[in-house]
Amino acid sequence: MDDVQRRLTPLLVRVRPNLVLIGAMSICFRGAIETAKYIREFLGDDVCIVLGGRHATETIYRDDENRVRHHLASPLRLIADGKVSSCFDIVLSGDGEHFIAEIGCVVASLEARGFSPRQAKFSLGHLTTTPGHWIAGTIMDDQVHTVCSSGMPLDYNGMPSPAEMFGITTSFDVFGGAPTAHVFSDIGRGCIYDCIFCSERISVVGPPRQFKISPHRLCGQLAAARRVVKADYGENFPVSAFIEDSTLLGWNSALVAQFEKVFDPLENPVRLGGQATIDQIVNNPALARRLGRMGLEYLFIGVETPRPELVGGLHKNIATKKGSWMERGDKAVEILSEAGIKVGVSLLFGMGEGAAERQQLFSALESWRKTGSLITISMNWAVQHPLRNTVQGNEYTYLDWAVSPGPMLSLLRNFGESSEIYPIAGGTSPDEASVKDILQATTEIMAMPPAHPMQKQEADHVPGRGGA
């Protein structure tokens, strides 16, 4: 936290915010608590601190009878039980797009009348018609109080794109360093599959939303990215975009056909990347060719394990009659290569696999690298998420740091998500020897020259989530 405080203090001095929004996944919950505590010590009652993000959404939820429930790790429950200090004034579960704007107006009104921004928590009951599906909670008289939205749906078409709101400051090496926008069709909050270990699973995040008009939203966000790059970087500067849908337009033929009608790659040239699953690609290879013609040149796929039957719950493993998981992985990479699309791979360890399974996985990666198709590898170590009421196995409060200081901290910085103390049920925690072996193997694979040097693209930055 010392480094965070050094970077945070000048911002607090210069801005002196009256509203701070903190988002956290579960393994970052301890960091969110410490950050909020420091801000509270620095600004006192002159700031309202709101916690949102995936951890709050997974731990505060409505059951099948529409009652508000709290997971063991609910921030509100932990505060009420005295296990966490009252560092958060409000905790928000669910859609926050409109809620944060409304709570900002409440804070501004309170300050204008000479009241503390922290008193915004008393106004939650007046915000129920704010669009979105959300639950907002606070602590009053040492008791948890929650308010639920009326459920007015979000109008995704009326929302500005992230590029227009925040600009484009990132660039992925897979796109040759071109400014890279994060764009969304907003089909849903996660994945259509239900893999038991994944916080993107449909039983946690809910079904797709406004599915039919998602190609139009995606087209609009790509056009916005183009305008922002043109304005900020120059007329002829290249543009790239990573499409953050858990699977690109659901890898759905009808949606891709709509996208072809509304998006002109010649008029709006954008280098595209996205995500899909192995079986989606194998079951509908024609979409790879069509999307390749639209500008898709990079696809991120999750492999997780060479033997899904050992982990029991790889729900996206749907085409079992078309060969083993790794055979279908070979086929998917072949299909993408023929369409001129490079491949990034998300690996997930700690699911109970052994040395033999890892070696099988590395052998496949070697072959993909040799063809010139594989240009980046992302690594994760399986972590147990709260998953609302669907968890099957270990339950944690997530109050401890996911990785303790020491040798493992520097090693696990190479992993997108990992924890020494929050393994999934039936899984394993990372150990130093295994992590070093994995790092050595993946480093050697990426150092291998492709069979076709002209196709080689080096990539150190890994876009996208590991959920595909």
Automatic annotation (TrEMBL):
Q: Does the keyword Metal-binding apply?
A: yes
| Recorded superkingdom | Bacteria
Q: Which InterPro entries match?
A: Aldolase_TIM (IPR013785), BchE-like (IPR051198), Elp3/MiaA/NifB-like_rSAM (IPR006638), rSAM (IPR007197), rSAM_sf (IPR058240)
The Elp3/MiaA/NifB-like radical SAM core domain extends over 181-404
Needed cofactors, names only, are:
[4Fe-4S] cluster
* Gene3D superfamilies recorded: Aldolase class I
Q: Extract the ranges annotated as region (Disordered).
A: 449-468
**Annotated keywords:** Iron, Iron-sulfur, Metal-binding, S-adenosyl-L-methionine
- Basic and acidic residues bias: where? 455-468
Instruction: Output the PANTHER family linked to this UniProt entry.
Output: ANAEROBIC MAGNESIUM-PROTOPORPHYRIN IX MONOMETHYL ESTER CYCLASE-RELATED, BLL1977 PROTEIN
Q: What is this protein called?
A: Elp3/MiaA/NifB-like radical SAM core domain-containing protein
Task: State the species of origin.
Answer: Rhizobium hidalgonense
